[in-house]
Structures are given as C-alpha cells and as structure tokens.
Amino acid sequence: MAGNSIGHTFKLTTFGESHGEAIGGILDGAPSNFKLDLEAVQLELDRRKPGQSDIVTQRKESDTVRFLSGIFEGKTTGSPIGFVIENENQKSKDYSHIKDVYRPSHADLTYDKKYGHRDYRGGGRSSARETASRVVAGAIAKQFLQHLGVTINAFVSQVGTIKLAGDLTKIALPKQENDVRCPDSKVAQEMIAYIKAIRKEGDTVGGVVFARITGAPMGLGAPVFDKLHADLGKAMLSINAVKGFEYGSGFSGVEMKGSQHNDIIQPDGTTLTNNSGGIQGGISNGEPIYFRVAFKPVATIMQDQDSVNSKMEKVNVEGKGRHDPCVVPRAVPIVEAMAALTIFDHYLRNKMTQI
Amino acid sequence: MAGNSIGHTFKLTTFGESHGEAIGGILDGAPSNFKLDLEAVQLELDRRKPGQSDIVTQRKESDTVRFLSGIFEGKTTGSPIGFVIENENQKSKDYSHIKDVYRPSHADLTYDKKYGHRDYRGGGRSSARETASRVVAGAIAKQFLQHLGVTINAFVSQVGTIKLAGDLTKIALPKQENDVRCPDSKVAQEMIAYIKAIRKEGDTVGGVVFARITGAPMGLGAPVFDKLHADLGKAMLSINAVKGFEYGSGFSGVEMKGSQHNDIIQPDGTTLTNNSGGIQGGISNGEPIYFRVAFKPVATIMQDQDSVNSKMEKVNVEGKGRHDPCVVPRAVPIVEAMAALTIFDHYLRNKMTQI
Amino acid sequence: MAGNSIGHTFKLTTFGESHGEAIGGILDGAPSNFKLDLEAVQLELDRRKPGQSDIVTQRKESDTVRFLSGIFEGKTTGSPIGFVIENENQKSKDYSHIKDVYRPSHADLTYDKKYGHRDYRGGGRSSARETASRVVAGAIAKQFLQHLGVTINAFVSQVGTIKLAGDLTKIALPKQENDVRCPDSKVAQEMIAYIKAIRKEGDTVGGVVFARITGAPMGLGAPVFDKLHADLGKAMLSINAVKGFEYGSGFSGVEMKGSQHNDIIQPDGTTLTNNSGGIQGGISNGEPIYFRVAFKPVATIMQDQDSVNSKMEKVNVEGKGRHDPCVVPRAVPIVEAMAALTIFDHYLRNKMTQI
Amino acid sequence: MAGNSIGHTFKLTTFGESHGEAIGGILDGAPSNFKLDLEAVQLELDRRKPGQSDIVTQRKESDTVRFLSGIFEGKTTGSPIGFVIENENQKSKDYSHIKDVYRPSHADLTYDKKYGHRDYRGGGRSSARETASRVVAGAIAKQFLQHLGVTINAFVSQVGTIKLAGDLTKIALPKQENDVRCPDSKVAQEMIAYIKAIRKEGDTVGGVVFARITGAPMGLGAPVFDKLHADLGKAMLSINAVKGFEYGSGFSGVEMKGSQHNDIIQPDGTTLTNNSGGIQGGISNGEPIYFRVAFKPVATIMQDQDSVNSKMEKVNVEGKGRHDPCVVPRAVPIVEAMAALTIFDHYLRNKMTQI
Asked: Which residues does the record give as NADP(+) binding sites (chains A, B, C, D) (predicted)?
C-alpha cells in the first residue's frame, strides 16, 4: 500500500534513505534448496556503484551487501532473504544548502507536502540510492533464471541524440562492457565524449536503455491486468528518472498496418517477425522479449537555478556535489534487475496455472 | 495473482469472455454515502460500444450494464459494487474457422499453451470486450474525481502517420467528440478518411491516445514502486493492443539537457514548464498530468494470412467478421477509465499518509 | 482492502446484499483444464439454503447459481469464474419495522456509523446470505481437492449444552446427513428436540461445528503469518456468528504437560497422537487436520427487546420474520467451504516452494 | 505469498532465523510526521526477552533493536521503517544433537519436507525468536494508538489448570507486572510455584493470555472476510504455540440463548452487556474489545523422547538446552504487539470508508 514492495510471489520490499543508517530489503518467496553465488550478487552491485568510471558520479561508496537470513550452508532455505547495505559517512555531510530548498524537478516539494516531514539529506527515500537494493534482489532472480535458461541483457542504445542504429534485438554484445555500456565501441566513444562535454558544461543529458530477454518459456504473464509487458512497464517506470517504456514495435508500431505488423507463426512455433516483442495477449510466446526505457536528464546540475524554499520564497539553488552527468550507464544493471524480478515472479506464478 | 484485479484500495476485479454468458466485475473500496449517476455510467459505456460510427466495428452489442449490489437509494453503501453486462447472441455464432487455428499476433497460441484449454470463441478472455467492465468502473471513479475537482480527458492524437501538432497539453477540446475523437476537426477528417481507406484494403492501422488530467491535488503517488506514473503506465499497458507509454517529456526528453528539462518552481507552487508531466519523484505536484499511449494496428485483418493450427500445421487464416480498422477512437474512454481508476486509488491511499 | 476477498492464489471476491438484486462472486485462480461438476456445486448450495428442514428458517429462497464465465465445454479455462445468485422477491418486503432501528447484537449500528448510509433491508451486506457465494466457490475448491485425494467433512458437535462425546476425529459419518447434521443419530434427536423447544420460546441457541480434513499432503501452510491454522482460523472467524476457533488440542491443550502433548513421530512419518491437529509449525504434517468452530445464538429472536433507533432514542424491537433458531446445521456446508478454499489456496501456494 | 507479511495498510514483513546473522523487519505504512519514543520500543522488547526472570528461559540475549530508516530527527517520515536485531554468539553453538533429528511437535519434519533444505540451528525460521520483530513493530503501533486514545493490555489468565476467576474484562491491572504477568498476585504466586515445579520435572505446561483493548473507536473492521475479530484471530493464531482464539463470549457463548446473549444498546451508544466482545458484524462498536488466546505446552522438554531422524529411523531425542517451561509470561507482549498491529491497520483502513 505504501509502495515499497514489488512482485506477487517473488516479492521485494526495500527500505532506506540515501543518507540514513543503511538501505536494504527483504526478498520473500525465493524457492528453497537453491545454491546461490553471493559473489555474483556483489559483482552485480559493483556494476551499479558510483565511482566506477570517469563518466559517472565520483562519490565513493563501497556498497557492500550483507545477507542476514534466508541462506544457510550456501543454499536458500525458502525463508525471506534479509539484506543490508550500510551507508558510509552519512553523518559527516553538510546539507544546509538544500535543507529548506525545493530543488527543480526533484521530489523535495512533493515529499514535503505529502508527508509534512522530510529527510532532506541527499534526497532521502527519493534518492536513486534505493535502487541498490533492487540490484541485490535482481541478481538473485538472475541466478534462478539462469538455471532455467533465461538470459537478460540490457545496454545503452541512446545518449542525448546519439543513437545506436540497426536491429538491436540481434546486436552482438561484447564480453566486457565499456564505460557507457553501449555494445558498439565506436558509438560508445561518441557517447562518452558527449557525456564528458556535457559534464564540463555542468549539465546533464538523458538516454535510452534497451533490454532483451532470451530463453523465456512460453506462458509467462497473466491475461488481463498483469500482462507481462504491463508488469515489465511498471517495473521500469518505477526506476528513478524513467519517462517512457515501449516493447516490441512500441511507438513506431503505431504507423504500421496490421498486415505488416502481424507476426506470422511458423510450424515450429516461432514467428517470422517479432513486432510483438515476444509477448502476445500479455503472455510470452517464446520469442525474445525486448523493450526500451527512456531516462530523462538528471535533475541535479552544476549550474545555478531559480527555485523556492520551504516558505515558498524565491531562492537560488547552487549547483554543487558529485552527481552523474548521465544516468544510463549505471541504469543498465538496474533495468536488468527489475526485468529479472518481474520475469521470475511470473515464472513462479505460472506454476499455478494447471493443477 | 491470476491478474484479474487492479488497484489497492479502490480495486476492480473483472470476469468474462467475449462470447460467454456475460462479462462484469466487482468494484471494491468505493467510499460510502456518495450519490452516483448511473445514467452517466451507461453513457460512458456507450462511448466504447461497437457500431457507434462508421469507422468502428459494425457489430451490434447494446452493452447495457446492470448493477447488482453496493448501491442503495441511489447512493453507494461502501459494499462492493457488483455489475454485469450480458453478452447477446453469444450462442448463435459459428467459430469453426478459428476453433483450431492460431491467428497471427493474437493470444490464441499463448493461451492454448499456457492453459491447455481455450475458449476459442472470439478471443475469449483475451478479447478487448473485457474492457467494457473497466469503463463501468472507471465511470464511477470519474464521478468521485469530479466531486474532488479532478478532470480526465483523453483524445486521439495520431492515426498511422497523421499526427496532431502543437502543444497537446493545452489544446482546446470540443464539447462534442467527432467520430475519431481527435479535437482538431481538420486533422480528424484526415484521420477518418485514412481509416476508411485502410478498411477498404481489409487492413488496420495503429494510433496514439493522449490523456491529460487536471485538478489532481499534490501528493498522489507512492515514492518507490508505486510511483503515480508507474501505476498509470501499468494501467495503460494492460489495455489490449498497447505497445508503449510515456508521460511528460517522455522519449523526447531523452534528447534534452537537464538545464532545459528542469521545471522551475514558482512561489505559487506551479512550475514554469511541465516536462515532469505533473509528477515529480512519483508524486503529483499539482500541475496537469499528461501522457501518451501507443496502440498497435488491430491484429484481425480482412486479408488471408498464413498461420498454424493447433497441431502446428501450416494453414491459411481467412479474414472475416466485423472488426475495428483502427482501435484508438474506441480506446479513448478506456484510457480515461484506467486513468480514473488509478488516480482515485491513489487519492484514497494518500489519505493514510498522515494520522 | 475493503475486506471482500479471501485467498492469495485461489481468491474469492464476493458481492451482494441480502435484499439487493443479486449476490455472487468472482473466483480467480482456479487452475485450467479441469472438468467441473456444476450439479455438485448446486447440491452443495442446497445444503445451505433456507427451508430445507423444520429446524431451520422457513424462508423460501431457491438459491440457484448461474455461472457467467471461466468455464467452457465443461472445463475451467483459467479465467475468473464469475457467478450470480439472484435474490427473489427482494422488492416486495416491508422493512419499516427495522428501517430506523438498531437491532441488539446486529451490525445495524456499527454499519450506520461506519458508512453513514446503510442498506437496512434484512441486514444488507452483513446478512449471512453472503455466505451462499462462499459455498459456491468452496464447492469448486472441494472438487479440486477431491481430485488430489483430500476430503473435508464438518458436522455439528454441540447445540447449547448438548455435546457429542468421544473422539470426534474418528467418529463415523453416516452417508446421509440428518436435519441437524450431527453424526450420532441419538444425540441428533436430542439436539433437534432442543432446537424445536427453543424456537417455541421464540429464542435461539448457539452451537459448535467440528471439521476434519483427511488426505492433505505434508507441506501446506506458510511458516510465519500465514500458518495453515492461522488462515483456517481467519476463514472460520469470518463466518457470521462465529466467536471462537481452536484446532488440535485447542483450549484443552492448555492444561496438558509437554510430555503428554507432544506427538511422537513414527518411522512411517505418522504420529502416535495428534494433539497438533495435523499442523506443526504452521505446516500440515500429513495427519488429519481438525478444528472446532463456536457459533453464538442467532441475534434475531422472536421476542420483544429494548434497543435504540437511529436518533439514539429508546425503542422496542419487535420479534418477527422467519429466522433460524440455531445456525449450526446450515453452517456445516459453510465451514466446509471455507476450509476447502483455504486448503486449496495453500496447495497452490506450496507449488512455488521449490523451483 | 510466502507468509512473512501481515497487515494491509500498516504492514510488517519480517526476516531472520534464530541462529542466523540477525532478525528484523520492515514496517511499511507508518504515517509520517509522528514523534516516536524509541526507548519505549526497546522497553517493550525487554518485556519479551529471555532471562528476565527465573520462570523463563535463562538464555542470554540482549535483543537490542537498531533502526535503519524511516525515522528522521525523531519523527517518522512515511518511508518504511527498517530495523535489525543482531543475533549474538550464533556461531558458537553446537547443534549436532538436533542436526538430523526431527523433534516431536516441532516444525523440523514439516520444514524439511516442504523446503528440502532446513536451517536446523535452534528451529531456524520456525523459532519464536522471530516474534521479537513483531514486538518492535507492535510497540510502534502502540504509540500511534496511544495518541488516538486506544489502550491495549494483555495478561496471563491461566497456567495449566490454575485460572484467574471473575470478570476479566474489568480486573484491575497493577502498575508493575509480576514475573508471570498475572494481575492477581495471589494467583500469580500459585502459577509461579507451579511453573517452577514443572520445570523441575523437566516438563512444560500451557496457558492462556487474556487481552483487552479500550478506547477503540466505533467503525474498525471490514464487513466480510476482514472482520476485526477475524484479523485479530489470525494475528494471534500466527504466534508460535497458539492453539485457539475466542473473543467476547467465545466458546461459552455456545451454551447461551439469544435472549441472554444479545447486548442491549443504550441511548448513549454503549451496551448493557458485552458478549459481543466489542465487535458487532465484524466492526468495533466502541465497547472494550477482549479475547483469549490458548498456548500449548512448549514442545522442547528436558526429558528423553522417542522420535525419528532425517532417514526416518527411530532415535532418542535428548532433552537439553535452556527453554521456557511455560510460554505465556513472555507471550504477553507478543499478544499485545499483534493486537496493536491489527487494530492500527484497521484504523488506517477505516479512513478510506468515506470520501
């Protein structure tokens, strides 16, 4: 009800503010007797952490996850998996410059009016730091899915106006991600150069993350309100800074005719085209699932801006601190995590379809 | 769990197949002691029904809603509102041509594999007929919202490649909708002509519905997973044929810089621009909420197509029956209904934020 | 949220007031491709209906269920099962004697204060008539359970001070239920005579329903809050007029020592005794599950009583109408239905325990 | 779904095994801007902890709660309250005597069969240690309720066959609890002596906790499945070792006639008697709410017992360790906590009844 949980059968609940004691979560519904690779979880978390390259925020946070329950002798027990990531140095910071200020396009004003009391330190609960907990849970979901033969990959397909061309559903992925997490190294260089230039201006820019899921069995998704793409869409739209979601042909499908758009089914069950994005009637059809997620430019810029304070008086907001000039490189593991949570939740739900 | 419910506090559960006995639903959580205009509900349902103009399907269904509970002496009682819409002539149809056939880009194959047993008559549960129940519930939600000063309007902004230009957040809406439900009568004429031409080809085409919500108070939405736009997105993506959702600056915001995209807050609490689409940090900020919903071309076309039957043998699918050449005109009241359900659910949830 | 649903995976939502248009429900989550015996559902409903013997209310209601969806060619489709039971003659009654009166130990006062508007006709939503919808859904659950080898039987073990003696977990059940649904025909005769005498006084009396479930596999129930007996307890306590629930040794177990109470496990997995009532740590252990449900005397008596009206003025409440002098005979199928819904919900949930 | 959460609007999810790293939980839905007394929470936890008197287990656990989020500058923020209680010395214990043994009337066998993998250390997730997390959350709920004028008190009314006589709904409570938490000091002495004698035998005994709630406003509870007493019952039955729940007249009400049992309403809205236990039609009527909870004798006894090992071979289970001879004294704060969580959840839910 308060919006801190996602999933029905495989359910993640998170807690924590960016500068409180710690963040963390409870992952409930993980099947038992499954060997987990906890180092792989930490590696996934490292893909999201600040300071990993020179085009992301230079804040230093080690982001080490500690598991408190639900795992015994290396295997899941079926009990809820509780975990925490301590916040470091959270007490030493000075927040006087934002304490009474509502920053433009941040959640400061809306939180204060909704709750009547706000943790103003670094965005509090509205900070994207919360997504670290999602990456932990998503990394666990990925291991279950891997066991089932399902692979989830996301990458950056656009930064500002620089776009990756061609059929992204089939683009080869390098073994090693580059700093911007765009699989085409030439385009990646352009993106990196652009992000650096933007950062020099004290500005920020948006981007698109493209995700594809292969090996998902037919039958995932529920027909009406919990269509697979509806749940994927909600999961993606719940990530900070996301403004749009489309799957399969998406917004461009609008301009097509039915005779072009229809995916002809072959005797082997595959389809000639995949405008459906691997989902028909809300249910996976065994083809690759793919979708695009639009991220706006980060609201925190290194420029002065007009705004108001908590008395609704005009003030100047200083641009300071260490922030991402473009959020999409670090968003890639978050998109993958949310996809993994959604797909595995529907995998478990599908087990109840037939007696 | 089985995906037939939406909403937390104001919750709709629907039932029914396109050619079963009846469709209907239970709307649970409607506040009590509220005078409902049941004629207004029927009028809203009439906006969705087949046969209302010559650019939609010519099927004849009267779609009359009958309320069974939850309303007494014209007012809500706080008990669940049960309602049914009888399906007419559902027994007389001949379905032999689709009984064993999996139509392209339909849910036939995925349903059959998921459930092992399928109501093949007219799509069964996967038919968009189910959305009539949503319109009933949404029309009730609209009345609660109207009482609170919240207005929801949707219209068609694109059909195929024909687009409405200008700032759609401010476009004037005519008192009377035209057949295609596009507020600009000149563009509407183009759209109508195009749809007629497409129909003549036995083909179909996609479109976009634009929605805007004014008067929503600040504070709606929950911070993390149930961000207001995440729940709106899921609600829209759950509508048949939807391929994408974006709000505020959406996918075009990707190309903007932070310094352009940020909405500067004024001392009166409004913002200079509204790239946020009325939602900041997942919570409404009092500005108009607006979003776009992409609909693919209808899968049922009046042309022969290749496909497979339930034995996975190659077959020809005949194009026959009476179907919409373009779904967006009839989708307008459905988009409004889903928006109303989502907004009012969050209105009720927000009542619990402070003691 | 509004309390009209029960179950997680196999979920029933009901609607309807005693004297509205109709009552009914939506059963969501029924596994697909399962042949249902709809006549058996109606027979179960007949066990609950008024007028079936001379110790229950003499009201005439045919209680015929009509299925609207979710069943095709005799088998479940996995879509929600919508059903209605029309209320007969609901418009002809005269309620002037209770319209503005709050009857003692009824929900009249609490509903009016909670909702600000009340359907005063025959109790409205608080009427036990709502339980007919539960019996429909429970009868479907029973068929799934029967397929799995699980049997649920309830019977009357006490009326007023007349109690069935001996080990009720092993008492033989007759093929044909008698009017009071007590398996010992001698005790049944006493109970029937007592109920008739009570009715002659214009009074009512309470009773106990004993239920036992055999064949339930090991592993049903979730460890912490959704312990199998906690969900059974809630399901029973949700039935009108229930005041208490105990399982296994129950309240009498309080007086035992651990060395007596412990159920010694045998090499074949059974236990020497069954004080645990078939549930250990909230999870079924394969032994018979059994519990007792206490029903208070019906609040509607055929005697004059003091009370207040809606202006909180003293009034006399007339005893009139046709009501049950003792609720337990008709409660037996309701107890069975709620047990079946709970057990089958946990059966489905248990499918997700291991990958 | 996995049963580790309780509550709809005010929702507690717990994690943790008795001998894992830590236990804890997330309390979601706490209203914002409310000053919390965190010392009072710790004091409540101290009422539950081991070693507090010589009639409870002599294990030493400090049970110190650490709050990680949701509280800022002493006040709730509306964000989820995450908390942990570290388990001390959890690694030093020797569990070889129970590793492969299924103890009688414990959850060892059922967990192992359900999950295929079990944390055998001290009961793991099935240990009553989990209830410490409930006491933390319940202590927070109590503070909200105190602010609203609602008081919750529980006490021990029976140990073995020693019962507190008289009208327990009106018994005076001493300022200071005695070791057994029975308000009558003479009966308390008997109980204490009995528990000591039982412990000397290496045995255990059951008991009853009586709870009463005063000051609850009219209108709490939802009519059908979430009746206030149904949710209270489930909450109580979810506590380890509970075998029964009754409210108001309970099982003894069975023997009463309607004319005796009915609570006559007075012009001031109170009732002459309170056989209803403060709840009519599932909704609080403003009278004191009271109920009784039956606890079985603790399964761990200091005597040798027959049982089986994980190969289902006959074995002898040694009686060793430090355990409670009678659980009810320490159960009192747990019962209060679960009552507080349930009542406050319904308080919040009731805010949505009228617009």
From this structure: 48
